[in-house]
Design a protein that fits this description.
The complex is a heterodimer of chains A (293) and B (290). Chain A is mainly α and 293 residues long. Chain A has helices spanning 19-42, 47-52, 64-73, 78-110, 116-127, 131-144, 151-155, 162-175, 178-186, 191-202, 204-219, 223-228, 237-250, 257-278, 280-292. Chain A has a single domain, classed as Orthogonal Bundle (MetI-like fold). Chain A contains 15 helices and no strands. The longest helix of chain A has 33 residues, at 78-110. Chain B is an all-alpha fold. In chain B, helix 1 packs across helix 13 (258-287) and helix 5 crosses helix 7. The two termini of chain B are 34 Å apart. The model of chain B has no long low-confidence stretch (mean pLDDT 88). The chains are: A mainly alpha (293), B mainly alpha (290). At the A-B interface, helix 1, helix 4, helix 5, helix 6 and helix 13 of A face helix 1, helix 3, helix 4, helix 5 and helix 7 of B.
């Protein structure tokens, strides 16, 4: 169920009149929203107004459409390429990570085989390996087989999700009774068919959670694509935007690129925020499973 | 039947094991191999054993980077998790339109890429684009600069706190929502205040969730890269080895010292692993966390 919209089941035993708490929440809302407001407000200004008008309110002229048009046409529409790359990379990584973790998590939860306990301990250890420490050696390795500077070099390493395996394992143990699987086996259903037609549909909430978490982490990833990719036609949004930002700051602040970096930042965060608001009831379930266990 | 079970179990593990081998074990192994090699004067590579590691342990740049992320974590993680925990305890008992708005807005930064967060805060911090320098100066602070050598680490802490407080709050809040009400009904009957219940009953009950967020915060902090690298445009605080990851990146791509970069990466992974294991072991012994 959704943590963000649902009323807590135990509401009503405290009068919501704590002035201190309310004041603190209002302050916190202000803190969390200031950068977002800044981006929204300043994406409507041109470079002149960026410097000359108060930064937390709209300028005297409205340039949002000009900025968006500039964003789409700068460097031959490079931003659209970056946007498409981000979508392709993060969707491919998330689909791959979700499928792979669902198989592994299901296997750990419902099959007894030699070496399983070693694997379980190994997965917990893997959660603690910092992903970025793997990036440099992966780059050196992939460069030996000419796979760097290709979409694969960003997509394939992102499919590794030990935490996803862990979440799915917990979820299978809690919500898929062994009896259902045994019944299907008695009916002579093949193991893969059981997984595909019985287990996967029952796993849907956990799958959406793992999918969303992988999607966000590869959508937001910077270090991996920065290391792997050298041609800007392969860049995702994060690397592309910083390359524009670097140009804008080098040219001494008067560059036309600042307004594009700001408008580009706005467009980069909108899809994720919207999908999170719409899919909140799903990811909540997964956070729950991960935190209580 | 048993054989079939065991075989199917392994079959379902295979895709994951392939990915683990290709993108975890092999890179770590390769890094380990590279880190034991060094360039020779004639252009080849030779085996040098632990020399790169011994060098890293006496390399002031690397050690300073490690020290910096440790200090950063010791300041930033407690502040962030304190705020997350208090926030979670508050929205657990207060359910109004305000608290629901707060919950949603606080979580929103999770959907903002670290790069964009760093860009936004960079603009907000800057004198020409942002309001804060002006506000600080009108309050009497002279020549306030978010990018000065001393202040910069706090400016970075603020970005990380902004990005992750709400996410951690939601994790802790989910754990609170998972508690059964009976746990603290007795305390309410006994006339305990909400604050007493929060500290004596709820906090001990959610220590697993807090431990989980602590571990993830430690892992994230030790790897910090994006924020200082992007804001390096504004400041000279970000040196060649400001954080271990920045150092490893520069070693590989600016100085082509791949062997040593591999040693630094491997040492970083080891340090993270050791630190998180120590934290886990310490909390397990003290509080018997399951």
């Amino acid at each position: 169920m959704s943590v963000l919209t649902r009323s807590p089941k135990k509401s009503g035993y405290l009068a919501p009149r704590s002035t201190t708490a309310n004041l603190a929440m209002i302050l916190a809302i202000g803190y969390f929203i200031v950068p977002i407001i800044w981006v929204v407000v300043n994406s409507t200004k041109d470079n002149l107004q960026l410097f000359s008008t108060f930064s937390l309110w709209f300028g005297t002229e409205w340039h949002l459409m000009d900025n968006l048009r500039g964003l789409m046409t700068q460097d031959g529409g490079l931003y659209l390429t970056w946007f498409r790359n981000t979508i392709v990379y993060s969707l491919a990584s998330a689909v791959g990570a979700t499928l792979i973790s669902s198989m592994a998590g299901y296997s750990l939860a419902r099959f007894h085989f030699k070496g399983r306990s070693v694997l379980e301990a190994g997965i917990l250890a893997m959660v603690m390996v910092p992903a970025t420490a793997l990036v440099m050696p992966t780059y050196l390795m992939l460069s030996k087989i000419n796979l760097v500077n290709t979409p694969w070099s960003v997509i394939l390493p992102s499919m590794l999700s030990p935490f996803g395996v862990f979440l799915i394992r917990v979820f299978v143990q809690e919500s898929i009774p062994d009896e259902i699987l045994q019944a299907a086996r008695i009916d002579r259903a093949g193991e893969f068919r059981i997984y595909w037609q019985i287990v996967l549909p029952m796993l849907r909430p956990a799958l959406v959670t793992v999918f969303l978490f992988s999607l966000v982490s590869s959508w937001n990833n910077y270090f991996l694509p920065l290391v792997m990719l050298s041609e800007n036609k392969y860049y995702p949004l994060t690397v592309g935007l910083t390359s524009w930002f670097a140009q804008a700051s080098q040219e001494g602040g008067n560059s036309i690129l600042f307004n594009l970096v700001i408008a580009g930042s706005l467009i980069a965060v909108v899809p994720l925020i919207i999908s999170f608001i719409f899919l909140q009831k799903y990811w909540q379930g997964g956070i729950n499973a991960g935190s209580v266990k | 039947m048993k054989l079939r079970q065991s075989l199917t179990g392994w079959l379902f593990m295979i895709p994951f094991l392939i990915v683990v081998f290709a993108f975890l074990i092999a890179p770590l192994g390769y890094a380990l191999y590279l880190s034991t090699q060094a360039d020779t004067l004639v252009g080849g590579q030779e085996f040098v054993g632990f020399e790169n590691y011994i060098f890293s342990l006496t390399d002031p740049i690397f050690l300073e980077g490690v020290k910096r992320v440790f200090i950063f974590g010791l300041i930033q993680i407690p502040i962030m998790l304190f705020l997350s925990t208090v926030g979670a305890l508050v929205i657990d008992v207060i359910n109004t339109r305000l608290s629901r708005t707060f919950r949603l807005i606080a979580f929103m930064p999770y959907a903002v890429p670290g790069v964009v967060a760093a860009l936004m805060w960079g603009f907000l911090y800057s004198e020409s684009f942002g309001p804060f320098v002006g506000i600080a100066e009108s309050l009497g602070a002279k020549d306030f600069n978010f990018f000065s050598l001393k202040v910069f680490i706090y400016s970075i802490s603020n970005i990380v706190t902004w990005a992750w407080t709400g996410y951690n709050m939601i994790i802790i809040y989910s754990a609170l929502q998972g508690l059964s009400r009976e746990v603290y009904e007795a305390a309410i009957v006994d006339g305990a205040t909400q604050v007493q219940i929060a500290i004596r009953v709820k906090l001990p009950a959610i220590k697993n969730a807090i431990l989980l967020t602590t571990i993830f915060a430690i892992i994230g902090t030790m790897q910090i890269f994006t924020e200082p690298r992007i804001l390096a445009r504004y400041t000279n605080a970000v040196s060649n080895g400001y954080t271990p990851n920045i150092y490893s990146f520069n070693l590989a791509f600016a100085q082509s010292q791949f062997n040593y970069a591999a040693a630094v990466s491997f040492t970083l992974a080891l340090v993270v692993f050791v630190v998180t294991s120590i934290v886990l072991a310490a909390t397990r012994r003290k509080g018997r966390v399951e």
